[in-house]
Design goal:
80 residues; alpha+beta; 4-stranded antiparallel sheet; globular
């Protein structure tokens, strides 16, 4: 059985901005004006990271897709 590793990494790496592509970075800067902010980065082994943002006003989560769009209907599971 593989040992769980989520306790070893911070939910939001200090350099997450460097991991965003240009479209994602521009979109994040834009939506930050509307209450959105980076919440955490899912970093599964051998896969691209998933950038999850959160809106403090509406309490919604969304995935910041590679093309810079916000995907609110992701079906992503969020632990409390």
């Amino acid at each position: 059985m593989e040992q769980e590793q989520r306790g070893k990494m911070s939910p939001l790496p200090e350099n997450f901005h460097k991991r965003l592509n240009t479209d994602q970075l521009l979109a994040l800067r834009l939506v930050e004006n509307y209450g959105w902010g980076m919440k955490f980065v899912r970093r599964p082994s051998n896969q691209k990271p998933t950038f999850v943002i959160f809106n403090n006003n509406t309490h919604q989560y969304a995935v910041l897709d590679e093309d810079g769009t916000l995907n609110i209907e992701t079906g992503i599971k969020i632990r409390n």
